[in-house]
Design a protein that fits this description.
By secondary structure, the protein is an alpha+beta fold. It has a single domain, classed as Jelly Rolls, CATH 2.60.120.10. It has four helices and nine strands, in the order H-H-H-E-E-E-E-E-E-E-H-E-E. Strands 1, 2, 3, 4, 5, 6 and 7 form a seven-stranded antiparallel β-sheet that branches. A two-stranded antiparallel sheet has the order 8-9. Helix 1 runs antiparallel to helix 2. It starts with a helix and ends with a strand.
Length: 180
């Protein structure tokens, strides 16, 4: 059994409704996955192919997913949330700066973001975002290889239910992107 198979088996064994224990358990499994030697074929292939996004695993029963992203230094992804989903980012190589934001309404009732702060996630580290958390990402040491563990197919959910919110900069403030 390679480290990816072990990761999947261990996450399946603890899977259930969102709880502190589930998040901690999944984060622990990702921490262990980050220790995988590059000699394991699945990881060597990810490094070799260096795709912008690749589905590594999708659980047919529970729906959780593990995606791999290779990002060039300087790549910036504007603030967004993950709707009702939760995610754990795990940096395998490189470094990613992640800013966090709070959604507020100004005195005129317009929604905008206020930045809370930022954290640099380096190789071997993970970062959790729960439903409603808003963050951005910037690759500051690349190319970076990061894993994104999601409890559901967020792309499908966004396409079907439009529950994810993305933000755009407008007059120096981050505001919700208009939906089409």
């Amino acid at each position: 059994m390679n480290s990816l198979d072990k990761f999947v088996s261990n996450v399946r064994s603890i899977w259930g409704p969102l709880s502190s224990e589930l998040v901690a358990g999944c984060q622990q499994q990702l921490d262990e996955l980050l220790d995988t030697p590059i000699s394991e074929q699945w990881l060597a292939t990810l490094h070799l192919e260096a795709l912008a996004q690749q589905e590594v695993y999708r659980d047919p029963t529970s729906g959780f997913m593990l995606l791999a992203h290779t990002e060039p230094e300087g790549l910036y992804r504007p603030p967004h949330d993950h709707g009702r989903g939760w995610v754990i980012y795990a940096v395998q190589q490189g470094a990613i700066e992640m800013g966090t934001y709070s959604r507020i309404k100004d005195q005129d009732g317009r929604v905008k973001l206020v930045e809370r702060g930022s954290t640099v996630i380096c190789s071997g580290q993970t970062q959790v975002y729960l439903p409603g958390d808003i963050h951005d990402t910037r690759c500051i040491a690349g190319p970076a290889l990061l894993f994104r563990f999601t409890e559901r197919d967020l792309k499908k959910e966004d396409k079907e239910a439009q529950r994810l919110t993305r933000y755009v900069e407008q007059d120096g403030a981050w505001v919700p992107e208009a939906r089409r």
